[in-house]
Amino acid sequence: MSNITNQSLSEILESIKSKKISSLELTQAYIKNIENAKKLNSFVTTTFDQALENAKKFDNKPNNEQLLSGVPIAVKDLFCTENVKTTAGSNILNNFVPSYESTVTKNLWNNGAFLLGKLNCDEFAMGSSNETSFFGNVINPIGDHLVPGGSSGGSSSALAADLTPATIGTDTGGSIRQPASFTGTVGLKPTYGLCSRWGIVAFASSLDQAGPMTKTVNDCSIMLEAMSGFDDKDSTSINKKKESYSKNLKDNIKGLKIGIPKEYRVDNMPKEIDELWEKGKKILKDLGAQLIDISLPHTKYALPTYYIVAPAEASSNLARYDGVRYGYRSQKGKDLIEMYENTRSEGFGDEVKRRILIGTYVLSSGYYDAYYLKAQKVRQLIKKDFDDSFTKVDAILTPSTPSSAFKIGEKTNDPVSMYLNDIFTVPVNLAGLPALSLPAGLDKQGYPLGLQLIGKALDEQKILNIGHAFEKNCGYKNEIKKWWS
Amino acid sequence: MSLDKEKIKHVAKLARISVDEAKVDSLTKDLNSIFKFIEQLNELNTDKVEPLTSILNQSLRSRKDEISDGKIREKILKNSPKKNEEFFVVPKVVE
């Protein structure tokens, strides 16, 4: 069973269930892959001993009634894990060992999975290339000079390199969908409030949402089903009946109306992205869906709005890192204030500091109306664009990103050009909607490109169904040479 | 509007982040290019638009005001960089 790790999660679950492979053998296979893939730098922490013990426990007393029976899973290092170091990719949390477990990871473990390790990410999830991590940049398995996307770059890299059968990330402005697109994998940002934010290191609380990253749409539906659900500990958690996304997964999309927003054809967009979009439209049309031209007129204002709202919330959320209660503390400074200032200056990286300063400025006295209030108003207009469109269509199809994976170091000196990478993903976060990124083709260099399906709030099932049908008919397959081992 | 070095130092003070003098120039340049980008919003007239304060069509739940945990001092102190048996320890504040 040496090739078990390149199978999908659902195939692996089937093999465990039918006893073709034990949980221990499966876990050992992943550990071997991870040990051979140190070059990718996708892990911050591994929990091999604990994973092997959990695998043995499962094999001794298998419970195959669960959604994720006997499967080891690595998760983004933004989820607090009890007694396992949780860094958020930052020096300031380099020694932080939570005494509690985040709700979404707990949900995974309650469904039969266990922790394999913690995956690298941009510092506090602020970045689009995984280059802002204190633990160094992650490499895309697609090519040794390419970024894996970000902020969930360790997650996308590990998944594409067969170092975990599935994973979870967080998405504040595209941090699940963009890395999925860059690595030829599937990523879903659920509706705001569907998955609990409790125990996730906070970045921008009105935008943050955890979601699955997987090899197939079916796997995505299994993971979403396992991780989602109402949580009393998150004040914005939506209290609704749990859905069986995997059981209800269908591939008949006949008659569904798919919106094509004209504003997503941006200036200087590579021809290949346009062609990919055309290919996606044709696949859905051939499956019986109806394409409808729509307009989301405020699309171009989404990124500027995001770069007010997200830093504002971040500056407030990150005020807690003071060197007193947990995390890094500077030894320099003659009084309390200097201790704070040095702790935060030494503990945070440049991008995080930039965003805290932007956030502090836009919320400061005299500037609040001009920036933050203005952004909240534009956010209303962006949400209204979607509300209006969803009276006419069932889902919206767009490219996931304006380019394929770029080179390491290519955009690090120009923050705005880095931000522009999230141009197609950010509007969805501002409107709180679910969106799925699907691998759809390759560019001329052979790098993966993704398409995005945006759904109505809480309409995950529909975009999963469309994605499932799309996947079957697209014929995309990730073929990655394991150059690193 | 453009941000000068003094303004940036003031904001850094508010944010409790000490800024390395050698880095102020590049920080000023970066922040100004970001603000130029952000200020595209000024093209839009939003006089009649209500600000969006929540994307959920529900108001925040309130919970009963009762204690649901406690007696976890050890757990709370566990990650502190400096502590004694009962308290977080900070540099002297009052003479």
Please give a structural write-up.
The complex is a heterodimer of chains A (485) and B (95). Chain A contains 15 helices and 11 strands. In chain A, a hairpin with a 5-residue loop joins β10 (435-442) and β11 (448-455). Chain A has a single domain, classed as Alpha-Beta Complex (Amidase signature (AS) enzymes), CATH 3.90.1300. Helices cover 36% and strands 12% of the residues of chain A. In chain A, the strands form 2 sheets. An 8-stranded mixed sheet of chain A has the order 4-6-5-10-11-9-7-8, sandwiched between helices. In chain A, α9 (302-317) packs across α12 (369-389). Chain A has helices spanning 9-17, 23-35, 48-60, 103-110, 153-160, 177-183, 217-227, 271-286, 302-317, 336-347, 350-363, 369-389, 415-419, 426-431, 460-474, and strands at residues 43-46, 72-76, 114-119, 167-170, 186-189, 210-214, 257-261, 290-294, 395-399, 435-442, 448-455. Chain A is α/β, with parallel strands linked by helices and 485 residues long. Chain B has a domain at 5-43. Chain B has 3 helices and no strands. Chain B has helices spanning 5-14, 24-38, 73-77. The longest helix of chain B has 15 residues, at 24-38. The model of chain B has no long low-confidence stretch (mean pLDDT 91). Classes of the chains: A alpha/beta (485), B mainly alpha (95).
